[in-house]
Amino acid sequence: MDQLNINVEKGASGAAICRLNGGLTVSTLFDFQDTARKETAPAVVIDLSHVPYMDSAGLGAILGVLASCQRHGRGFGLACVNDRIKTLFTVGHVDGMIPTFETVEIAESK
C-alpha cells in the first residue's frame, strides 16, 4: 500500500506550506484532504518536490483544494511539479487552470 507523509508549516507570508512525500493516489488522498480542509491560512502552497506520481484521484483532490481556496478568496499554488505530474495535468486538460511554480518560495510570493 502507498504511503503519503504530510508536513504543514507556515511560510514567511503566512501561507500554509503543505509538503507532501509519497504518491498522491486514491489510497493516500484521504489524509491530504482532511489536512487541506482544516487549513485556514490566507494561501495554500503544496510542495510536490517529493511526490513521484499522482493518479486521477490525486488530481481530483488537488482540484478540490484549488476550488475551496477560490471559494474562500485564498491563494493557491503548486510548487516543484515534476514532468510526470505535468503530463497528467496535460492529459486531464487542467494544466492551464492550476497555478504552478518552480519553487515554494516563488509560489509563496505570488
Structure description:
The chain is α/β, with parallel strands linked by helices. Helix content is 37%, strand content 25%. The protein is built from 4 helices and 5 strands. Strands 1-2-3-4-5 form a 5-stranded mixed sheet. Helix 1 (29-38) runs parallel beside helix 2 (56-71). The longest helix has 16 residues, at 56-71. The radius of gyration is 13 Å and the shape is globular. The mean pLDDT is 95.
A few lines on this structure:
With 110 residues, this protein is of the alpha/beta class.
SSE layout:
Blueprint: E1 5-10, E2 16-21, H1 29-38, E3 43-50, H2 56-71, E4 75-79, H3 83-91, E5 100-101, H4 104-109
Helix pairs in contact: 1-2
